[in-house]
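Allow me, if you will, to draw on your knowledge of protein folds for a short while. I have a record of one protein: its chain in single-letter code and its fold written as discrete structure tokens. Kindly check, if you would, that the fold set down in the tokens agrees with what the sequence suggests. Thank you for your consideration; the sequence and its tokens are set out here:
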Amino acid sequence: MSTINSLIIKAGCALLAALLTFTSAQAEDLPASVIDALRKARIPLGSVGIVVREIHAPAPLIQVNAKQSMNPASTMKLLTTYAALEMLGPAYTWKTEAYVDGQLENGILRGNLIIKGYGNPKINSEHLWLWLRELRNRGLREIHGDLILDRSVFATQEADPAAFDNDPGRAYNVVPDALLLNFNAIRLRFVPGNGTVNVFTEPSLAGITIDNRLTLKKQNFCANWDGNIGVQLVGDVIRLQGTYLSACGERDKPVNLLSHARYFDAVFRSLWQEMGGTVRGATRDGITPASAMLLSTHYSQPLSEIIRDINKFSNNVMARQLLLSLSLNKEIPLINTPSGSMQADLLLPGISATPASVERSEIVLRNWIAQKGFDFPELVLENGAGLSRKERLSPYNLSLLLQDIQLSPFSAEIEASLPIVGVDGTMKKRHDNCTVTAHAHLKTGSLEGVKSIAGYLQSSSGKQWILVFIINHPNASMGNQAQDELIEWLEQTH
């Protein structure tokens, strides 16, 4: 038998085995429309994990590979946000403090201004502008010392922003920081016209200039509009090279180029100068001394609003900030168990000199899981956002989490934070013209090789359902149709 014939026979056997697997699954669990959509996408049943259950039912209606350890992508945010709501409370807010270390008289600070961050996940230029106006109203005009940034409540982040996809300039690769501002993103605005393309940044960045070497190319259609644009930071210069297509019109491109400290400094100085203020000294990291006097405190939105951005729009850096916040101001003694693992018995919250870290927050989170009576042996945490190749959770345990949410006094806050199918968030453009529209609140997740949904659905009969559908396969990006078929089947037939 020739080598070619042998390969053909082997391929045919593999295809037959796959078809038999699909047939078995069709008979036992899944509707035919889902099986067909998976087959067309060339996604084998062994690469999916599915759980469908009524909200208060003791057992699922459907479970396929339910206890398989899988990469959940951004549906991991459900665990992070639920744990935070229960431990911190929906009214929890983050503060950012301004201290003066020196003599403030007649609008002149003869000393340093200290900005101390506590991990606010969402402070933007508008918030900062309003707060700086307040500092001026409190009598501060000129700073004759340094601008000191106290970012010490978070442990130094050792994460490499290029580790996930070797593209550190992507806005979603921003690492957490105690003084996060605007998600550390620079929005490059491209405006073509008169044979050239103008570029400016939002927000304005003091001390940062643009070296625009772009050429405008006339073309009748716009495709992959930023594929031929190179963005590079050279010292304090943002250098742009390549071509821009005239048919693309005005476009925005968010990038992550500056360190957190440099970014905060550039935005702060730009806004302060616009208000007529001055800073004579340098900007540097430091610790707030006991002798410093508190001048003003800025408070964030409450956690109940923060989680809406995290879940509806799948904001990764906000989720990572939230995970770190679980170990803020907590003493966490580690105890060696007989099995060699570590467990945490949390004391009452108190002021602690130990900065928050992913490792400490993971202990807090696992302790919370154990206190609720759950056992998630397959759970792997890296950042709590799902932007990870390492994180793992089974569809079954994710469904248990969704079931437990319904028993929580904060269930309404969690459900309201999820994208509404066909209406908003990451589900706005799915099922926007059918009976499912507005009948489901589903968190989505998407990575290369991962496609997931998890949340709640109200069927036409009025029953309330929990739905988890995770795909881990190279063809996962083609799995939308299979997920949509299950959503529609459940809504119409149950």
